[in-house]
What we know:
By secondary structure, this protein is an alpha+beta fold. The protein has helices at about 80-85, 105-115, 130-135, 145-155, 170-175, 180-185, 190-195, 210-220, 245-250, 255-265, 280-285, 295-300, 315-325, 330-335, 340-345, 365-375; strands at about 5-15, 20-30, 35-40, 45-50, 65-70, 70-80, 90-100, 120-125, 160-165, 205, 240-245, 265-275, 305-315, 355. Adenosine-5'-diphosphate (ADP) binds near residues 145, 148, 200 and 209.
Amino acid sequence: MDNKDRFAFLAEWYDPTACLLRRYQFFYYPNDNSVEMFDLKNQRTFLRRTKYGDIHAKDMFVGNRVNIFSRQLNLVDYADRYTATKLGSKKERTLALIKPDGVPKIGDILEMAIAANLMVTNAKMTHLTWSQAADFYVEHQSKLFFNSLVQLVSSAPVVALELMGDEAVSVWRKLLGPSDPEVARREAPQSIRAQFGTDSGKDVAHGSDSLAAAARELEFFFPTAICHGPPNTAIYLDCTCCIIKPHAVAEGLTGKILNSIAAAGYHISALEMFNVDRANAEEFYEVYKGVVIEYVDMVTELSLGPCMVLEIHGTDVAKTFREFCGPADPEIARHLRPTTLRALYGTDKVKNAVHCTDLPEDAVLEVQYFFKILDG
Ligand code: ADP
Ligand code: MG
């Protein structure tokens, strides 16, 4: 990168106190990793040029969210042509739909997507109705297989993913491989459909086939307007709450953690990605305030980027799942309980890979906080 590079964006921040969408010009200087913000409405500098360690050149593209001093800014546009041509050329978003037969393999599938430099920027488990599935697959309505396709996709929960990266549409379709798993096993044996597929109906996952299709299909599952997409699958019964923390998501550990959870025999009954702002992180961790010295750092970590929230379902699951997560401090976990999630994937007491419900009586409340209140 050029030493004098300055990248300019249009950024939006929703101010929850004033209930206002605030708009800024946002500048990023890669040579010293500094940022600067200009308030567009009031026409004045909002943040003078400041070095900021928690931001990286790779985060700088339209469509991404960046966290600046606990504010989640949406980078909504490039603010000059230089930035647009230098950074904006190849970034795409696509919709990946993990079909019912692929859901048990979601950990492996995410590992493959992450290894191919695709970032998961949104995720939701949902159980489509027949008519929602028919709507999604409307382009195939005249095909002979239409009924069986719609029937299969609406038979059990699916997981919709928004994937972002260079040429995401074609990269994801290449990872999927040929539509028919039998053909895929011959022609692309490493592909997702070759490894996990059964036949031309049970082909594990779907991928948008063009940018236009991606835009339509993303809007179907993750609408930008006030209206809601298909609902999440939380059941709020015999369950516990697990959060794959922002640092673990950013480190690309989501697939590995989901694999470990599945391998230990736990059933994931709901899954959704959230961007938690500071006020909500404080509220969620309220019970730890004044009790745990890491409280403030925990709040900061939870609001530092997207996290993946799970509802884990099973009888008395809160207690056993908490043991499976291990001691809160990963160093201690690695000594005493080396096979636990925190021992395997944690860094320190705050970046300890996962949050899980502490007291079984709080489990439903924690699950509700995300899947009812924040998803509401
Ligand atoms: P792709 O998902 O690779 O774009 P198509 O657009 O050709 O594949 O087909 C859409 C979906 O229809 C496939 O993912 C597959 O699940 C389903 N499908 C295709 N052919 C059949 C078939 N013969 N029987 C059942 N389902 C089929
Ligand atoms: Mg297709």
